[in-house]
Amino acid sequence: MSTRALAKDQPASFAFNAEMMAQSKRIIAKYPSGRQASAVIPLLDLAQRQEGWVTRPAIEEISKILDMAPMRVLEVATFYTMFNLAPVGKTHVQICTSVSCWLRGSNEVVRACKERLGIGMGQATPDGLFSVGELECAGACVNAPVIQVGDHYYEDLDFASAGKLLDALKRGENPACGSVTGRDGSAPAGSAVTLTEKPTPPPKQDFAAAKTAFEKAKADAAAKAAAPKA
Amino acid sequence: MPKLTIDGIAVEVPANTTILQAAELVGVEIPRFCYHDRLSIAGNCRMCLVDVEKSPKPVASCAMPVGEGMVVHTKSDRANKARGGVMEFLLINHPLDCPICDQGGECDLQDQAMAYGFDRGRFHENKRAVKDKYMGPVVETVMTRCIHCTRCVRFATEVAGVPQLGATGRGEDMEITTYLEGALASELSGNVVDLCPVGALTSKPYAFNARPWELRKTESIDVMDAVGTNIRLDARGRQVLRVLPRINEDVNEEWLADKGRHAIDGLRAQRLDQPYLRKNGTLEPATWDQAFAAIVARVKGLSGGKIAAIAGDTADAESMMALKDMMSAFGSPHFDCRQDGAALDPTVRASYLFNSTIAGIEQADALLIVGADPRKEAPVLNARIRKRYLRGGFPICVVGEATDLTYKYDHLGTGADVLAKIADGSHPVAAALKNAKKPMLILGMAALTRADGAAILAAAKAVADSCGLVKDGWNGFNVLHTAAARVGGLDVGFVPATGGKDTRGILDAAGKGEIEAVYLLGADEINTAKLGKAFVIYQGHHGDRGAHRADVILPGAAYTEKDGTYVNTEGRVQRALRAVFAPGDAREDWTIIRALSEKFGKTLPYDNLAQVRARLAFVNPLFAAAGKIQAAEWKAFGTAGAIAAAGFEYPVKNYYMTDPISRASRTMAQCTEEFVTGGARQKSSDPKTGTHG
Predict the structure, then answer these.
(1) CB contact under 8 A, A75 and B166
(2) What ipTM does this complex have?
(3) Which among A41, B2, B116, B390 would be 20 to 30 A from A175, CA to CA?
């Protein structure tokens, strides 16, 4: 991770399109009036979805919408690495290189990107279609290594499967997200290795007998208490 | 009230006190960087960790409220180890550049590293380096030194009300910066330098000038505005190198406005260091004897009615007293301390004071500002209004041009006629003021310097009476002055005697030739072209407008160079001490007048400062009670009349240049360029080419 600053070349203006505007209004309405600044993260996200990255005019527009100082919005935008502060490719491939993914071979995934797309970390293809970025722990360590493209995670990658995935993306397809090995969520790969035997049912209890015994004991105690002391 | 024990000392403090505050009460010192009395609690430096019994970890004392029966140890092994660890972490990325750092010798980090740190580091990796940021002409940055306490960010957001500072990035990459590296556009920006516990933010004009232990410290009073900010002048040799605020809870808390802090480099330029005489149209150097002789030759024999005097905005009470006595000895009734012609009523003290007092703003619960721009006219006072505003329940209304005051307000219009409507109750604001327990009105100089100023004063008085601004133990009628000398001048009685002319009258009469000699005591804010053919004696310290017009120049002392008495806008008599001697042949002002009076054979009856002050106290007993405030009696004042609907013209258009000292100051010129004339700075990132003008 390096210092995050706004890109040098910025568009002249920003405005939410009609759909995003409607969404932003719905989000702002969730917060009590006077606390609308809480909507800053979702609004930055909307701006990024619209433009592909968070631009300076977008930051200023959001600060106006939420009645905040532009600096406060910039602070949030630079804090979260999920916000792109510079233009990215049409398909932005983010590779998790945090420790779990790295141990499970994220370097191979990076190599696959280099081979298929011809670009390394933090670079974009000249046609602007692809860019590759680093992702701080995606929180999907159990399916490491992981690539994030847009809202989708592609998991359990290696050199070959990452290459296949990138090829599909290059063809403009929309590959199914999740584990590329086909395992169900984060269930064990292959068959189960523990808890394989048939579960033993809990011992059957005879509640009627237990109740009779309890009542008998109660009656005995009462009789003992009532009996004159010897 | 919870009871707790701190280092074995039992103490009972109000609930919601923090451990750190409680420790301060019992005199136990807890080191801190991010915590500051006057800012919100951040709790991010962790230096104030203490050991609390039954707590599994050391706790940050600045953010932990006290609890019943708490047992706190600030010097236990665990507390010391925790601090040592925090200090070691802070020093990991702090450069070891103390020898070339301006903060050296007065650095919190340096001091606390001595007291609480280890004597060696265990960090062998690379330190981080951060690019320096541009923050304007008065704040120098060396951001690698920053420890991210965020005091500056909180100050800018909370006190100054300009939320331009912030922390971008996160973790190791966190950087303090202004939005897009713009200049910090606040009149209080210099205070971030005082707040910075390390050398990340230092004073740009003072950079590499001196070490704190070389400086001679003198207590003084700021004269750049009428707030009377308590300051400390740090001088070396014959130069005042910097100005720092002194803590005075009643006046400035611990803030100082940028003009008061940074205009002092103007004291080294354009100085009058010897007398001058106008010969054949040009000013030529002269001796004191020649200057006095020229004055005597021209003025002796003139009847009193042909002599006039005008006192300037930074004159001390002593010199105004002396000049008034001399004018009286001449038999002249024409003297005035109101250069701007403000329609202030000198006979009723309550009519020209900030009666609520500055500290009183915090008790007020409604505010009406008329014809004042407190942000520019009195930035420190404006910070107090903002402080009250942030607490909530403080509706503010403004009559006059709408400017950014750093707080929200209802704009009632630009015209003065609104005032009449409020006075007769037909305006909705009148009801709001009536319902308030402690309502305030601030009347600015923009309202009083107009031709209908007296009528506006009367209307304001009517508002005060009809809306219940003045009641038992509360006087909500306030005049906000712009000149440090003004209240002092009015208290001395440096206003036209019976039959005398005020500033406007003096200028008119001088233009017509009815007044033949005019004595300007540092008066530079008048239209000197109107003086006509009058013989002008200018006594002052800077070659400014008055001196340009003068026929004789008598070099006086600036506020740093004399023992002076100033009365601030709330009527507080404060004494400034001399930090350095005036340059060259210049003398303290009252002594010049005293010497001149002798040449006229009308020797003033005082030979030393104590005698002048005794005379001041005799004329007005208030001058005997320095530092105190005496409530002024509420009496009738003002002359009812027609009020024009025209808008107000605020007196301070360029905050950074309002008097001869700030006009001569290089730093203030840079500030003017940056903030007023606007955007002249070429950003280093923009390549400059030959085609740029």
Answers:
(1) yes
(2) 0.89
(3) A41
